Amino acid sequence: MKPQKEKPVYNVLQNISFLLGQIRLGHPSLLVFLALELVFSVVSPVFGIYLPKIAVDLAQSQAGLEQVLVSLGGFGLLTALCMGISSSVARGQYMLYNDMRAYFQLRLLYQSLSCDYRVIESEAGQTKYQRAWNSVYFGDFSGTSVMLVACRDIAVNILCFLLYSGILASFSPLLILLLTGLSLLSLLATRRAQVYENSRRNDQAQVERKLRYVVNTGGSVPFGKDIRLYGMGSWFRSLRDRLIGQSSALIGKIQNRYFGAGAVNAAVLLVRDGLVYGLLTGAVTGGRIGVSDFVLYFGAVTSFSGFVTSVVNSFGQLNGANLQMNDLRAFFDQTDEPEPEHPAVLSDLHGSSIEFRDVSFSYEGGKRVLDHFNLTIRPGEKIALVGVNGAGKTTLVKLLCGFYRPDSGEIRVGGVRLDRLRKQDRFRLFSAVFQDVFLPPFSVAETISLQPAGRTDRARVESCLKKVGLWERIASLPYGIDTPMTRETEEQGVVLSGGQRQKLLMARALYRDAPVYILDEPTAALDPIAESETYEQFRTMADGKTVLYISHRLASTRFCDRIVLLENGRAAEEGTHDTLLRSGGRYAELYEMQSRYYREKGAAENEGA
Hints:
It contains 21 helices and ten strands. The protein is of the alpha/beta class. The chain has three domains: 322 residues, Up-down Bundle (ABC transporter transmembrane region fold), CATH 1.20.1560.10; 171 residues, Rossmann fold, CATH 3.40.50; 76 residues, P-loop containing nucleotide triphosphate hydrolases (Rossmann fold, 3-Layer(aba) Sandwich), CATH 3.40.50.300. The strands form two sheets. Strands 6-7-8-3-9-10 form a six-stranded mixed β-sheet, sandwiched between helices. It has a four-stranded antiparallel β-sheet with strand order 2-1-4-5, covered by helices on one side. Helix 8 runs parallel beside helix 12 and helix 16 crosses helix 18.
C-alpha cells in the first residue's frame, strides 16, 4: 500500500492559534485567568524595583515616621496586593491546565478508536500515536501546558523588557545591547540541547511503546496461564528492565546536553553580574548617579537580564512545545483519509452485489498480497473464500470494509464505488464476525447491540440469542441479558465457553442486520465438525443476505453457492464444492490433504483411547 502523504508541520503561530481556539471552545475561563495573570505579572515587578529606591530616598531625606509609613506602607501594600492577585490567579488556573490535558487525552483516545485501521495496525502508526500521547501525558511538561506557560511568560517578559529598557536607557543604552547579547549566548546553548532532544523523539516513542506492551502483556489475565506455566515471569522482568534501561540511557543523553547548556548559562551570568557591578559602582563613585539610583538600576539590571533570559528560555520551551503540538496534531489530522467531496448515499445502492475490479494491494514495505484480483458476488449469494494462510483472504475483508484502500483497481457495492461512500455509511453495510473475539465488559445485551442500554432493543436481543441457540444459557443467569460479560470488572460476570462466545458473536451480527455478513474464520478455535455445524446454522439464519465465509478448512464451506480459492493474489479457481473436486485442480488437492490429515488424526485418537 502506498504510504499516506504527510502534511507539512504547523508553525508556532498556527499551533498557538489552534490551542487558544480549543481553549475558547472547551475552557473559556482559562483565557480570563491568563489575561489577569499577564496584567499583574507585568505590574508587580515594576512596583518591586521602585520600592527599594523609595526607601533609600526616604532615608537620605530623613523623612518623618508618618511620611515613611504612608509612602512605604501604601506602596508596599499595593505591591503585595498585585503579587497576591497574580499568585492566586496562577494557582487558580492550574486545574484548568489539567482539564485541558484531559480533554486532549480523550480526543486522542476517540481518534484512535475511529481513525483509519491501517494506522493502528502499522508500526509507524503506533509510533505516531505514542508520540501524540507523550505530548499530553507528562503533566506540567506536556506540550499543551508548556505552550500556554511559554506564551504567557514571553508576553510578560517582553512587556517587562520594554518597561525596563526605558529605565536603563536613562543610564546607558549600550548596557541594554550588552545584556541582550549575553542572553543570546544562553539561547544558542539551550537551542542545541533542544535540537538534540527532538532528534531522539522517535527513539523515545518506540522504546516507550515496547515498554507499554511488555507491561500490559505481563499483567494480562488471558496470558497469565502461559506466563506461570512456562516460567516466563523472569523473562518479562528482564525485558522490562532492558527497556527501562534503554529509556533511561536516552533520557540521560538528552539531560547531558541540557547540563552543558546550563554550564554556559552559568558562565554568562557570572560575566554579566561582574560587568554590571563594575559599571554601577564606577557611576556611584564618579558622582553620576546617587545611591537610590544605584539600587534602582541594579534591581532593573538584575530583573532585565532575568526577563531576557526568560524570553530566551521561553522561546526554547515554546519551540519544544511546538514540536509536541505537531505530534499531537499530526495524529489528529493525518490518520484519516479524507471523506469524498461528493459522497454517494446508501439509497444509491442497487442491492448488495460486490465487485472487485482489478484490485491490487500490498502492505507497506511488504510483498503484493492481491495482484489484479477480480471477483463478483451476486446479491444474496453465499460465497466462501478459501486458501492457505497468507493467501489474502483477510486482506480482502479489510479492503471490503474500508479498513484499507487498494493500491489500484476499485471495489463496488451495489454498483457504487466503495470510496464514494462516507466511512460510517461504509461500515453500516457489513455485519462481521472476526477471528479475534471482542467482548467488552458490558452487559450481554449491550455486547450484542454494541449500544448503551437505553438504545438497546431488548426484544431483538432475545430473538437473536434464540436464533443462535444461546437463549437458555443466558436466561439461566441471575441477571439474564443484563449480566456483565467478564469477571475482570464484575464478580457476577459470566464466562462463556469458546463455542458459546462464537454464538454470541453471531447473535451480534444478526442484531446489526446489515446487507452483507462476513465470517472471517471466527470458528478457527473450534474443531472442524463444530465449525461446519456453525457455518451451516448461520446459513439458515442469514437467509436472503449476502454472506462471505472465510476459512482455511475447505470442508466447512461445502454448502456455499460458490467457493473461490485464492492463490498468488488472484482467484485461482471458483465453483461449487463438487465441481471443484471433479475438476481435480488445486482445490481438490488441498481438500484431499486436509481430509487425509483429519482421518489420520482421528485414527490416532481412537487408538490412544
